[in-house]
Amino acid sequence: MFLSFYSIFTAILCVTVFIKIISLLRKRMLYLQHFSLDTLLFLLLLCVLRLLFPLELPYTVILNSKKIMPAFQNFFQKPLFLSDHVHIAPAHLLTTAWITGAAVLLIRRIWEYQTLKHVLFMFPVSNNKHLYHLLTKAGLQRPKKNVKIIVHKSITTPASIGCIHPIILMPDIYFEDDELLGIFIHEAAHIQLNHHLVKLFIELICICFWWNPFFKDLFSETAYALEMHADQTVCKKLNQEQQRKYLHVIIKIFMHRDQKDFSSVFTCSFLEHADSIALKQRFQMILEDHYHSKNNSLSGIAVLAFCIFMLSYSFIPQPYSEPRTTDYGYIDTSTNQNFYYIKAENGFDLYEYPNRFLDHIDAKKDCLPWLQIYKNMEDMKRKWKKNY
């Protein structure tokens, strides 16, 4: 069990395929109806685990590529600039660009977080006791987790930020008590289930692999799954009439929100996805009571997904290469007579007696003159027996 460049490459390739499959499945309501939200969250978890453990396992099979991958390897390793002490190849430039891009994005996210903290610090904290009473009713307000509520006209959709010192952001519009209760249960679920940390961790993965455009879907699908996870908590705590008011809140916020909002990788917004397909799906999941439905095939799907996950470790493509003489350590061919050459179609093959292949020589001028050259293996055996 070890790590290599090609095991990491295989992990990225597998996760890219997994992400596209998850995205296609999530958009189909039929999948969520039959296999519930839990399987979607489990598939996303497997994607993260595949990236965190890009290893070669004992049963991994190496797929040797003799044409395509060696050509890419030679291209990336071919020197663009070569001197006595400096060797620059395309691989070095790409690695530098990879690290630089990740560093720039990380600094940008830190700057965005500091800006967001500065803006929130300027907003006054609400002293409305009724809001905190409803927050307590939602099951969040506890002595060890003192939550602050900020109500401001610049905020267009409810959101929450922070796990240690949580803050709930609210738009300055009128909500009924049942509507506020639904919002607070939703945001309480984000805080209690540490959805902010999940989003932040997925964002760090996306920063590390910023050059892969498909990883944006990993963040997008995770954020949407967390929204439905919060909706699931709401449906468990509200009755049917309150759930309908909760859906009315979604419409009200959708009509009120705009593109300039506090939604970011650091917040869990009430409307992460405001497109019509996502909203229709959230409505269907609640109205058709799919969050409460149980499916006996859930465990079977989880087992199948885990088997596919383990199957992704069964192969690793690598460029094919012939062994070199240096791979066998130092060989003193000047005095040892147990070495010989066999003529080949495009040069000579160096062997150690009786038939251990060591290296291939392209031209006769590179052959050691004191070693015997045979036409073929049969010729070697015949003359060897005659002399020894």
Key attributes of the depicted protein:
single chain; 388 residues; four-stranded mixed β-sheet; alpha/beta; 12 helices; 53% helix
Spell the H/E element sequence.
Answer: EHHEEHEEHHEEEHHHHEHHEEEEEH
Q: What are the segments in which pLDDT stays under 50 over at least 5 consecutive residues?
A: none
Assign an overall shape.
elongated
Strand content: 5-15%
User: How large is the count of helical segments?
Assistant: 12
Radius of gyration: 31 Å
Largest sheet: 4 strands, mixed
Concise synopsis of the structure shown:
This protein is an alpha/beta fold. The protein has twelve helices and 14 strands.
Task: Write up what this structure looks like.
- The protein is an alpha/beta fold and 388 residues long.
- The protein is built from 12 helices and 14 strands.
- The strands form 5 sheets. The chain has a 4-stranded mixed sheet.
- A hairpin with a 5-residue loop joins strand 7 and strand 8 (167-171).
- The longest helix has 33 residues, at 90-122.
